[in-house]
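Technical annex B. To support the medicinal chemistry partners, we prepared a structural model of the target in complex with adenosine-5'-triphosphate, based solely on the information shown next.
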Amino acid sequence: MAKILTVANQKGGSGKTTVAMQLAGCFGRRDKKVLVIDADPQGTAVRWAASAEDGKPFPARVAGLSAAGGKVHREVQKFVDDYDYIVVDCPPAVDSPVPQSALLVSDLVLVPVIPSPADLWAATGIQQLISNIGDINEGLRARIVPNMCQPNTSLARDALDVLKDFGIPVTDACLHLRTAYRRAAVFGGIVHDQGAQARQAIEEVDALVDEVLRILDTPPAAKEVDNG
Ligand SMILES: Nc1ncnc2c1ncn2[C@@H]1O[C@H](COP(=O)(O)OP(=O)(O)OP(=O)(O)O)[C@@H](O)[C@H]1O
Ligand SMILES: [Mg+2]
C-alpha cells in the first residue's frame, strides 16, 4: 500500500510544487515507485516533468488530476496498490476542495511556509483545515517545512520562532533560498541532477527525505494533529 503525502498551503508560491517534486524525485531515485498527483489547475508539476530532457525522464510518474477537485481522494485510492509513494500537489486557492479531499486519505501533510509575516498569517487557514480533518483521519500527521530560508536575517529567526508555536511541528530540515531549486524546475529534474554546484541543496533535500521517511515509518499516535 502506497504511503500518501499531500503538500498543501493556501498561500501561493510557498514552495508546494518544489517540495512535492524534490521529494517524489528523490523517492524515485531510490528505486521506489512514485506517483505525483498534480491537483492544481495551473499544472505546474505536469509541466515540470514535461520539461525533462530527452533520455532523462523525471524519476516519478506525474498525473494531472485537477479535474477531480473534491473527489481527488477517490482518485488517489485507485492507485494505492500500484505505488510505494503517492505525492499530491495542491493548488493555492483558499476555496479549493482539493486539500480537504486529499487530507482525508493522507498519511502526512507537508506545509511549506516561507518564514515571513505575511506567509505565516496565511498559513493559519491550512492549520485549521488540518486540525478539522485530523478529527476524521486520526492517523494524519502534519509538518511545516520552512522554505526559502535565509539564515542570517533576524526577521527569519523571529518567524521561525513563531512557527514553533503553530500547533503543527516544524521539520528539522529546511530548504534555503537557492537558485538550484529554480533550475530544477526549468530542467525538469531535481537538485541531485545538478551535481557539485548544488551540493547544499542536495544535502538539505536529502535531510528532508530522510526525516519524512522516519515520520512515515513511525506508527501514528491515536490522534496526531493537535486541535489547539
Ligand atoms: N527554496 C527555494 N529557493 C529558491 N527558489 C524557490 C525555492 N522554493 C521555491 N522556489 C521558486 O519559487 C517559485 C514558487 O515555488 P513553487 O511553484 O514550488 O510554489 P507553489 O507553492 O507550488 O506555488 P503555487 O501556489 O503557485 O502552486 C518557483 O519559481 C520556484 O522555483
Ligand atoms: Mg504549485
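Notes passed to the chemistry partners:
The pocket of adenosine-5'-triphosphate (ligand 1) is lined by residues 12-18, 40, 42, 44, 92, 147-148, 175, 177-178, 181-182, 185 (CB under 6 Å).
Residues 3-216 form a domain with the Rossmann fold fold (CATH 3.40.50.300).
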